[in-house]
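Archive entry. Fields below.
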Amino acid sequence: MEDGTAERIRPRDRILETARDMFHKHGIKGVGVDAITEAAGTNKMTLYRHFESKDDLVIECLRATACSANAMWQKFEAEHPGDKLAQLHAWVRMAADCLMMDGRGCDMANAAIELSETDHPARRVIKELKQAQRDRLVGLCRDAGIGQAELLADTLSLLLEGARVSLQSVGAEGPSAQFVRMAEGLITSFRGAAAR
Amino acid sequence: MEDGTAERIRPRDRILETARDMFHKHGIKGVGVDAITEAAGTNKMTLYRHFESKDDLVIECLRATACSANAMWQKFEAEHPGDKLAQLHAWVRMAADCLMMDGRGCDMANAAIELSETDHPARRVIKELKQAQRDRLVGLCRDAGIGQAELLADTLSLLLEGARVSLQSVGAEGPSAQFVRMAEGLITSFRGAAAR
DNA sequence: CTAGGGTGTTACCGGTCTGTAACTTCTAGA
DNA sequence: TCTAGAAGTTACAGACCGGTAACACCCTAG
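PREDICTED_STRUCTURE:
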């Protein structure tokens, strides 16, 4: 065989990236394949040569999002090698930054809400990827020497998830404005409980 | 005039209630007006005689949801008259029950996510109603004698909002399973801080 | 130069969506 | 009983949706 799909211009990547952006901004059911391909500077046929269906494209977008999240976790480790507590604080800061500048919430959660059919193929993927993120946060808390690592990680998860959705319903001046204070307070509290 | 829209059979109410149920289960963009009217045992023309548009129907449904929430708060006061702390615990219990038996999250939050257009008429309504709920929870915390009432109320809000969305993305075995433990722990913690 | 795969273009299919028009049927009240 | 208004029925408009077929065009590897 040749050297696989080479490094050219690759409309597939343009479609994928454009779709991620548009799904994020307007929701999955809020944007059609025509709009995506037009924004990506290509056409519908090319999309369907690279993706089986719109659902397939959605799933691929979610995987790409998870991949981006992976990169962030690696950045935490690179910036604070070995210092798990610093990495946890970096996670809080990153989460807050995303809240501030984004406006729209987590792609996975939004997709889960939009795709209400319980047997939708994307739901399996969402559950897997979310579970992986949860496990990683639990691991970080545990490695940071926190006693009830699962409970802290789950609480932080819910706080962030809640902040993201509250940002869209109540607005930026709502409860989500206090996210950092809550998260840092919780970490302090859980660390105190462990030291005792 | 006659005695206004009398107390007969009233297809309008059937449409409204059916729409609430179907929007809740399948999302707003996931159900069409034809499906609503058929499930309500009526037809599209009758719907459009009572509601200006689908968006108008959506808004009316959200108002009805807010009305139901109002009734819950009155039940708290009726069951624990004057005892604000008991009412706060009742709120936690009610929230947990809703989580358990429902599966789909908060109609307002789901709508806010689905209706991503920033100028959508429903967004104003959602913000108002969510703000009102927040104010009420803050008031309850304050009246229960908790020092940092706003911070506790906002934290509880985010936890519940997060639990609702996490239930849909990660599932029932995810972080949302710990909601009661987190909420009760927070209340205890905040009460301790006030007593000191 | 040539062959072939990736790409672009156009047109189309069948379905669903919101919303409306015109007409008939029912029902309640005087 | 008669009448007015609410409700049901059918058909339709116009737009958009996901997905496909057929064909012309590159552009590069050999």
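CURATOR_NOTE: Chain B is about 75% helix and 0% strand.
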